[in-house]
Every structure is written in C-alpha cells, then in structure tokens.
Design goal:
Oligomer: single chain
Number of strands: 13
Order of helices and strands: EEHHEHEHEHEHEEEEHEHHHEE
Bound molecules: acetyl coenzyme *A
Distance between the termini: 17 Å
C-alpha cells in the first residue's frame, strides 16, 4: 500500500501587522469586542504589489527546504486559493515556473476556507493511485484585496498568508483518510457577490466584498465540524482520545473550542494561531500546521486531525500520522 506522507512544511506571512487597536481607529470597533467574540488580536496584511503567488512561493521554498526536496522532483502542485493572482494562468502555474518545476501538473482549487483540505485530498489521491510521487500542496490567500475595509462586521476577521506541505509517497502512513463535502445551498450565508462571468459592480473595489451572516455561519460551522470529526473517527475506528493534536481552521476561537470540547481535547493539545493570523482562509490550516511543527509541538509519529469549514459551504478533514 502506498501512502502520502508529509516530508516538510513551510509558511509565509506578510511583514505588515495590523492590530485590533489600529482597526478600531478606522471603523467603529474595539480590541475587546474583536478579542472576546473571535480570539483575534492581530492580522498580517500583504504590501502593495505583494500577491498570493509571492506568499505561496515563500511558503513552498520553506517546505521544500524542510523536506530536503529539489523543486525538479515535484510531479504535482495543487494550490488552494480564493484570491488567485490572475484569472489565468492559475497561481499554481505561476508558482511552478518560479520554482523551476516546469512540466508537472499544476492547478488551483477554490474551496474557500477549506481550500487546503481539498488540495491535500486531491494530492493524496494522486499519490495513493501511484500517479504522483512528490506533491506540493499549498493554501495561500490575500483576502485583504477583497475586504470592504469600512465594514466592521467582516474586515476585522481576516488576514493574509500562505502555508505549504511537501507530500512524498511512502510505505507507511501518512495520510490515513480525508473527507471533503460541500453544500452549495448555503451560498448566501457567506459569499463574494461579483465575478468575471456574473459581472462586477460600479462600486468601490468593483463590488468585491465578503457578505456574511456571521451568526448563522457560526451555528452551521460548529454543527458541521462536529459531524466531519465524527465521520473521520468512525472511518478509522479511532477513539477520540487517541488523537495527539487537533489542527483546526482558524476562523474563530469559539468555534475551535466547540470542536475541541466535542473531541474531549484539552486546549493545550489544540493548535491556535487565530490570535496572530486571524482567518487566512485556505492558508489557515497549513499555517497552523507549520507553526505546530516548527515550534516543536507536533512530533514525528503523532496523530493529527486537521479540519476546515468555509464559503460554499465547503468543509473537510484529514487524519494523518505526521
Ligand atoms: N465591532 C463591534 N461591534 C460589532 C462588530 C465589530 N467588529 N461587528 C458586529 N458588531 C455588532 C453588530 O452590529 C451587533 O450589534 P447590534 O446588537 O447592535 O445589532 C453586535 O455586534 C452583535 O453582532 P453579531 O453578528 O450577532 O455578533 P456575534 O456574536 O455573532 O459575533 C462574529 C460575530 C464574530 C462574526 C461571529 O458570528 C462569527 O465568528 N461567526 C462565524 C463567521 C466566520 O468565522 N466567518 C469566517 C468565514 S467562515 C469560517 O471560516 C468558519
């Protein structure tokens, strides 16, 4: 049996940090409100001209170095993003050329905040099937580009960044299972209402903005994450107490705590970066994973549960032995 095993992780964050206090000087909000409702204290925001692809490149280089893999060995690049550099070529193709990995398959996946779990699932299938041996999987976003910075209900929640993993074919696990789902019926609870085909609007930033019914999203997210976590444990006939780490999507500390409670996991076995990064959508899980690895929390051989939920709605999980 061939498995996909994480050989290395990497991440990248823009230099510019915006604190809650700085946002409170721009919109009617406060550090207390944001921290209490979400756990967010600050976010990193891309500089003018700094793109999703730039962050993806830095994260990818760090992951390749950690894995001891040369870019020429990569035979698949899957990149989760909702904020690609261009309409086309895909950010994965731009990245491939920059890395010097020309010739391998490279494509983007748009599954909003679940983008990395979707990308990981796709790459895992390629490796399990024997179609790829070395895959680069990335989640990268510059959500700051489409935020409405005058809307306090949404602009306080998001940030920019990128995370990457190098997957290698191995005889030992590796990714044990992954589970992805979507329900397009929830489109209007969380969406960006303009696009190339539907058209743009004669509004600031061409009408690009996040429209969200926060309270409804919160409720569905908690219930849905509970379900996908149960599905993952059942598929692997695993008791929840066997998990070493929960590495959740970093949208809201209260959502993270609800999932941890469901798993009966103390918060010191849950990776939390939402305070520093805010919600970086597809980048959130690989950023948290890289932080967990580089800080020495996650050790080789440990059992990790990754999960995410986002616009679409989309959601998913992955159980893996690191
Ligand atoms: N500062 C101060 N007050 C605010 C702010 C703000 N930034 N934003 C909203 N408020 C006000 C509202 O106007 C409202 O005022 P009112 O009572 O006078 O009408 C009050 O605060 C309460 O607003 P709610 O939206 O009901 O607040 P809630 O407790 O639900 O918290 C939040 C809002 C943080 C958005 C929460 O619902 C949430 O986290 N939802 C999940 C959404 C999410 O994470 N989306 C990201 C993408 S999906 C994902 O990744 C899971």
């Amino acid at each position: 049996m061939t498995y996909a095993r994480i050989a290395g992780t990497g991440s990248a964050l823009p230099e510019r940090v915006i604190s809650n206090a700085e946002l409170a000087a721009r919109v009617d909000t406060s550090d207390e409100w944001i921290a209490e409702r979400t756990g967010i204290r600050q976010r990193h925001i891309a500089a003018d001209g700094q793109t999703t692809g730039d962050l993806a490149y830095a994260a990818a280089m760090a992951a390749l170095q950690a894995a001891g893999v040369d870019a020429k060995e990569i035979d698949l690049i899957v990149l989760g993003t909702t904020t690609p550099d261009l309409v086309f070529p895909s950010t994965a193709c731009l990245l491939q050329h920059r890395l010097g990995a020309n010739g391998c398959a490279a494509f983007d996946v748009n599954a909003a905040c679940s983008g990395f779990i979707y990308a990981l699932t796709v790459a895992n299938q390629f490796i399990r099937a024997g179609t790829a041996k070395t895959a680069l999987v990335i989640g990268a976003e510059t959500l700051s580009r489409f935020l409405d910075w005058s809307d306090r209900a949404t602009c306080v929640l998001f940030g920019d960044g990128a995370g990457a993993v190098v997957l290698k074919a191995a005889d030992e696990p590796g990714i044990l299972s992954s589970h992805i789902h979507a329900d397009g019926g929830y489109k209007e609870l969380l969406w960006n209402p303009v696009g190339v085909s539907a058209g743009f609007k004669d509004e600031p930033n061409h009408g690009l903005r996040v429209l969200m019914q926060g309270r409804e999203v919160f409720k569905v997210a908690v219930k849905t994450l509970d379900r996908v976590v149960e599905e993952t444990l059942e598929a692997n006939q695993l008791d929840r107490h066997q998990l070493d780490w929960l590495i959740p999507h970093q949208a809201n500390l209260r959502i993270i705590e609800a999932t941890a409670k469901r798993l009966d996991m103390p918060m010191d076995r849950v990776i939390v970066t939402v305070d520093k990064h805010a919600n970086t959508s597809a980048a959130s899980v690989p950023l948290a994973l890289d932080y967990a690895v580089r800080s020495g929390k996650v050790q080789r051989g440990q059992l990790l549960l990754l999960e995410a939920f986002g616009g679409g709605f989309t959601w998913g999980s992955a159980l893996l032995r690191y």
